[in-house]
Design a protein that fits this description.
single chain, alpha+beta, two-stranded parallel ribbon, 4 helices, 4 strands
């Protein structure tokens, strides 16, 4: 979603001068039904810069960043895996 920005280390709160990718081109030429944001910062920037254009509400999952110390790898897998599987099952039902 973010093509480039100014950031100090891995601190999401320091993100400045955001330049976003043009998702509208991809969405117009594909069959994308869902957008997943990798953490709250990704959701914040998506909602600010891209939601007004693409109008797809994002699914927000916990950040996989090492800075997200609240989630172990096992805990991330326990959240991400069922979410992805549910979306894949839902997507398969749209095709049928």
């Amino acid at each position: 979603m973010i093509e480039s920005c100014q950031i100090q280390g891995s601190s999401d709160s320091s993100i400045r001068e955001v330049k976003v990718n043009d998702l509208e081109i991809v969405l117009r030429q594909s069959n994308i039904h869902y957008i997943i944001c990798n953490g709250k910062a990704a959701e914040k920037f998506f909602m600010k810069y891209q939601y007004p254009e693409v109008e797809i509400k994002p699914i927000v999952l916990p950040s996989t960043s090492p800075a997200n110390a609240a989630y172990s790898l096992e805990r991330l897998i326990s959240v991400w895996k069922p979410a992805i599987l549910n979306l894949l099952n839902d997507e398969n039902s749209l095709v049928s």
